[in-house]
Amino acid sequence: CGCTNLCSHLTRYKLPFSQFVWFPINIMPILESEDSPLLGLKFVGQGVQKRASSSKKSAPNMNEGRKNAVWALFLSAACFMAVSVLQTPASRTALRAEYEGFERAVGSNYEKNILPSLGSRGSRSKPHAPSPYSKVQTLSFQIYTGGAPAFTVDESTGEEKQNHECYGLHSYGLPENSNILQCYLGLEDTAKDVHRRLNIMRDAVDKAYDNSDKDDSVLKIFLSPEFFFRGLNGAFEFELEEAEDENGECSDICHILKGLENIVAHKRFENWMFLFGTVIASEGLPTEDEFDYQFYNFAPLYKGFDPATSTRVGKNFIVPKRYVSNADFLTPIRHLTNRTLVMELLDEEDDHALQDRTLKNPHADGQHKYNNDMWARYKSELTALEYNMIEYGWFYLDGISFSVEICLDHLIHRALMTYMADVVTGSETRVPSSNDGEVEWVGMPRRQAQVSLVSSAGMDVEVTSLALADGGHIFLQDGMGGDVEAHSTFGEDQCKPNEYEFFGGSQSVKRTAVISATDVTFEYEMNMDFNEYNLYPETGSRSWKKMLKGVFSSTAYRPKLTVYDPVDIAI
User: Fold this and answer.
1) Over the stretch 368-404, which tens digit does the pLDDT of each residue have?
2) Which parts of 36-117 fold into alpha helices (H)?
3) Out of 137, 195, 273, 509, which residue is the most buried by the measure of CB atoms under 10 Å away?
4) Are 521 and 500 in contact (CB under 8 A)?
């Protein structure tokens, strides 16, 4: 075994066995010099050893065969002696000590001295320190984040009636490919709106902490659905810098981020990660059209920390959504061809009543991607604000590889496509890696994600989109399907006869690779080991309908926490 390991390492480092056996000298000067004095070998750019070329051809002579015969006899005798010596325990012990010293010498210099000349173009991911976590526990916050229906059914009479949640609002609209009229919910005072939503989020985090595993070796992940932070008009608006300077205050987006930063800055959350759903944001453009906006949909992601012993450096992230879904925005009433029903709901005869500030639906206008150029332009500013952007849906946190997607991005295989594109283009993609308060940009994980996260509103786990390591887990939290019991099926969809399908507001799925002599496949297991906790009581001063009033609809389902049992992190 000793000889085998030794030879394999010599081969790994591109060293001829003769250099190690016949010359008991320090081998590092050979590696560090371009021209080797031994046997005329040269270390070239691609890490392949070649014989130095000679301008003169050596003429064949009769002595060449004799020399070769002598060398062969000499080498055979030396090998026999070496094997005999290695049979003694003392010799094996000495060789092992010698070998370990060689391993340390070469290993410490291999990345520094050899790799730069290999032309690897970033194909090697930078090694990460061992993670302090062996398990992960997901605590998923289920709350309905869709629009409120314009009409509901009276439980006593069974008749349809106007939804009281939409009274007095001019934020009606239609989802694409649907005739079910809805309204955006929110407060006219956007500062109070943000404050209300932050308080609900804080209550959910507190409930999650109370029911979490307190073992420090378990990484806790708090996961919220898409559209949690959406204003009355469909989005919170970025204020112009001039306006912010005049007001002396930050915008609603700023207040959202600062509020979330304050939630995670606590000693009890040192072993926590938070994906706080998404923020829908808009930015007015300097055009004649007062409804001409750029749109953004992004998820704030944080690592908790103790402010007494650490800082937030390397713990704040922005995850932009890439693709606009037909469910992301309502088509506003001013764009509807038939306004009769809306006019009746508004009880208005004047068309001016329809001139609200509800955003247009960019998807209906043929815009299928968000305006993420802003994130690229202001990347340095984000860094100055201690935020790092997760551009490609991949990142490392404390030595664990993650992929993260927002709703439609998952269906379109964004994480998987990024991984595949990185492989075929030379592995030059760089993703953030956060550890001990520092962020480095490193190569993507070769074994895919140990943990995948999805924040959505109308999405399920798609097996064709997974980019998981062997034994890896994906966790999804949806803002529409909270009233659907978690379950899975196989082959029931005629269009997908050989695929698993997963359902439920909160979903946790493990994927395992199986390779046999006749087949290569993946196996899937839905995690059903969880407990559910209602966020608010049914009645009283803090009943769930009172707490959600004005900012979230209570017509769908009651908000709750789904707390999964800890699971092993894939190796």
Assistant:
1) 898 877 777 777 778 888 899 998 999 999 999 999 9
2) 63-86, 89-109
3) 273
4) no
